[in-house]
Design a protein that fits this description.
By secondary structure, this protein is α/β, with parallel strands linked by helices. It has a single domain, classed as TIM Barrel (Alpha-Beta Barrel), CATH 3.20.20.70. Helix content is 38%, strand content 15%. It is built from ten helices and eight strands. Helix 1 packs parallel to helix 2, helix 5 packs across helix 7 and helix 7 packs across helix 8. 46% of the residues are buried. The mean pLDDT is 97. Bound molecules: 2-phosphoglycolic acid. 2-phosphoglycolic acid binds next to strand 8.
């Protein structure tokens, strides 16, 4: 990746970690982070642990992220959390359109679009997730699927920059399965995403494109060495300080 794009390594804790576990994990990561680490680091704990994790990392360069947001600022939406609340809790990033949200919670490109607008509107930086299923890859429509997700997700949004947009390519078949896209497979899609962003008049060279899907200390260096892979969105391997720190170190 070019020197001007700072790598981002984000840990998606999903529905894991009690308060005491979350505090300890955040403290360990912050405490062991090499001062010279090149990567920016973000942690996305479950909502219940946002404040506890923020307390552990707020005086460090580690950033807080949320795993999802609603598209309204407030209102009668039982169970939902708004971007205003996430900003208030100390978040800098919000994951939007994760495949588990699309698969289990009815998220569509239309709701992803509303959420992106809402997150940007309060000054937070979305991490927009896109990626194909195994059936779509086998049918050789990966590039079309990702293109539609990006075009519809980012529809009618202006003013995007390297400061307010991160994109994560996460092949659904690689998430939590132990199957990883090869560096070449991932680079192919990342290259297409960057060219598409340029066509969409978005400053493509400034936008960080993360890879996600069974990233481990063993495979991270080869993935991160690809020219259009600017970081990683890490699930399982982010739940242990040791493996997450190794992935951060692999970013230089
Ligand atoms: P995984 O999850 O690293 O456990 O495959 C990645 C993600 O869902 O963001």
């Amino acid at each position: 990746m070019p020197a001007e794009r700072q790598p981002l390594i984000a840990g998606n804790w999903k529905m894991h970690q009690t308060l005491s576990e979350a505090r300890a994990l955040a403290r360990n990561i912050r405490g062991e982070l090499a001062p010279a680490a090149r990567a920016e680091v973000a942690l996305a704990p479950p909502y219940t642990a946002l404040t506890a994790v923020y307390d552990e990392i707020s005086s460090s360069p580690v950033r807080l992220a949320a795993q999802d947001a609603h598209w309204q600022k407030q209102g009668a939406f039982t169970g939902a959390i708004s971007p205003v609340m996430l900003r208030d809790a100390g978040c800098r990033y919000v994951i939007v359109g994760h495949s588990e949200r699309r698969q289990h919670f009815g998220e569509t490109d239309a709701t992803v679009n509303l959420k992106l607008k809402a997150v940007l509107d309060v000054g937070l930086c979305p991490i927009l997730c896109v990626g194909e299923t195994i059936e779509q890859r086998q049918a050789q429509v990966t590039l079309e699927v990702v293109t539609i997700q990006l075009r519809q997700g980012l529809a009618e949004i202006t003013g995007l920059s390297g400061e307010n947009l991160v994109i994560a390519y996460e092949p659904v078949w690689a998430i939590g399965t132990g199957l990883t896209a090869t560096p070449d497979q991932a680079q192919e899609v990342h290259g297409v995403i960057r060219r598409l962003l340029a066509v969409m008049q978005i400053p493509a060279q400034d936008i960080r494109l993360l890879y996600g899907g069974s990233v481990t200390p063993e495979n991270s260096a080869a993935l991160l060495a690809q020219p259009d892979i600017d970081g990683a969105l890490v699930g399982g391997a982010s739940l242990k300080a040791d493996s997450f720190l190794k992935i951060i170190a692999a970013a230089g």
